[in-house]
Amino acid sequence: MDKKPSLSESDSAYIGQVLTAMAECMSAGLSKFSGWVLVGYAGILGALLANLDSASKFLAPGTLSTLSLLFSLVVILNLLQRYSAAVVSSSAEAGKRVKEQPAPRSTDIDKFLKELECATLWPARLMVRRTNRKLLEGDLAAGGRLLSKLAQVEAWLVFAQVLVSVASILVLACGLSSEHFVQAGASSGLTYSAR
Hints:
By secondary structure, the chain is mostly helical. It has one domain (9-187). 77% of the residues lie in helices and 0% in strands. It has seven helices and no strands. The chain has helices spanning 9-50, 52-55, 63-100, 109-118, 124-136, 142-175, 178-187. α1 packs parallel to α6 (142-175). The longest helix has 42 residues, at 9-50. The radius of gyration is 25 Å and the shape is elongated. It starts with 8 loop residues before the first helix and ends in an 8-residue tail after the last helix. The mean pLDDT is 81.
């Protein structure tokens, strides 16, 4: 791993602020997109389930159950992404608010950071502990880097959500067989002829 260049405290703090702002913007955009993917998938699955009697004539057995399982996976990925987004956005907002009210000069930084760590549940406590250690070493960009990394994790979660959604479309397409169309057409009096 490359050694980080030595930065002044003001440069390090500024870099942390820039990284925090970037993570906040990225997180907001990802949350919207992730929500639309989930809503779109839910709409398609809802339409299939609402018309189960007629849709089942065209679907191979097991297709709806597979689609439902994949939908559950999309929901789980969405929840993980939303949690990460909540951490990023709340951390960025807290940073803005705290900046407006500087800490009193009498603040014991070690005790302050220990209180932050104690107020955080696992697994986030591990991230807070590591970031606090870096802050005490003078790395004021550590918090911004952490938020930037969390926003990138969000991007991967959204990407996985999209992949699962596309895989669901493929499952649906493969579940639609011409045999089912021919059978459904014959039962309704329609005929099918290949030319």
